[in-house]
Every structure is written in C-alpha cells, then in structure tokens.
Amino acid sequence: MKVFIRWLVAGLVTVATCAVVTWVCGTLILPGILKDANIRWVVATALGLAAATLAGLWGQSFANGKQPAESAPLGSATTGPGNTSNKISGGRFYGMLFQGRDFNGTPKNPKSKSRD
User: Fold this and answer.
1) Cα–Cα dist 27/47, whole Å
2) CA-CA distance, 11 to 20, in Å (whole number)?
3) Distance from CA of residue 49 to its chain's centroid?
4) I want to staple 26 with a disulfide (CB 3.0 to 4.6 A). Which of 5, 35, 44, 102 is the partner?
5) 28-52, pLDDT tens digit by residue?
6) Would you say 41 and 89 are in contact if contact means Cβ atoms under 8 Å apart?
7) Domain ranges of the chain
C-alpha cells in the first residue's frame, strides 16, 4: 500500500473514531447519567476526542509501516573512544555512564584539588 493511501486511511479512521464515540456516548450511554444536554455533549465530545487521540497514535504507526528498530540488549557495553571504566556499587561499567551530578552542574575533576 502506498504511503499516501496509508495516511489517508489513518486520517479517516481517526475522524470516524471521534464521530462514532461522540455519537454513541451522546445518544446512547450518557443520557441516563447526565440529564442536561449541554453537559452531556461536552462530555461525549471529550470522550470522542480521547478515543480519536488513541486512534491517531495507531494511525501514525500504521501510516509509517515500519517496525521499531531493535535496541541493544540491557547490560551491553557501549563502545567509544578511550578506556573508560567506572566502579559503582561493587560493579564495573564500561563506556558512558550518567550520574546525578551530570545533571546538577559541572562534575568535579578528581585530579584537581578540591576547594571544599
């Protein structure tokens, strides 16, 4: 199936989902719960839009037609320049390692003298 056709189908499914869920909620499900028509249709529209959002997420993956790339297995070493080794909690981790200090400011250089 061509990409344009896939996007067209995804868009039509999203619009149809919104319309059907809004109509079903507004005419069949909510009248017994909500007596005021104005409130009932606002809630029905919100539910329809929520369902359309989920249909849109499906449509995007359908239209692209690609499977997600497989990620590296957990625990595998990341290769890079140099021989980086980090000892944390009794284990050794090779490659890039992020710690809390990496996000809270500039890490201290262990070779420089501390001013603390």
Assistant:
1) 13
2) 14
3) 18
4) 44
5) 999 999 999 999 999 999 999 999 9
6) no
7) 3-64
| Residues composing the chain | 116
The per-residue pLDDT for 19 is 97
pLDDT digits (tens, 9 = 90+) for 76-104: 555 556 666 555 665 665 666 666 554 55
Both tokens assigned to 12? 């039509």
| Structure-block tokens of residue 23 | 């109509």
- For residue 38, give the H/E element and its range: helix 37-64
Calpha distance 62→6 (Å, rounded): 7
* Helix axis angle, 3-24 to 37-64, nearest 10°: 160
Percent of the chain with pLDDT over 70: 56
pLDDT at residue number 84: 60
* Cβ neighbours for 59, distance < 8 A, ≥ 6 positions apart: 7, 9, 10, 11, 13, 14
Residue 18, Cβ neighbours under 10 Å: how many?
20
Nearest by Cα to 45 from 29, 73, 60, 25: 25
